[in-house]
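BUG: 3D viewer hangs when loading the predicted structure for this chain

Environment: internal workstation, default settings.
Expected: structure renders.
Actual: progress bar stalls at 90%.

Input used:
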Amino acid sequence: AALCGIARIIFGSDWPHPEGLADPINLVGDLQAQGLDETNIRKVMGGNLVDLFKVENKKVLNPDVPALVIA
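Structure tokens produced before the viewer hung:
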């Protein structure tokens, strides 16, 4: 963030590929450990993407879509 600015960082994951994070949501804890506050974590985890693609920032829930189950 110090190098390029927090507004230029977007969360991404290659999961479930081997080179991806085993549990991508743990990245939030890593960001907190690096000193990012809640506002900047929200930017990295989705806010910057919303701004970049100029999409509506809303929760989308489709209860008819089955949950992803990893066996």
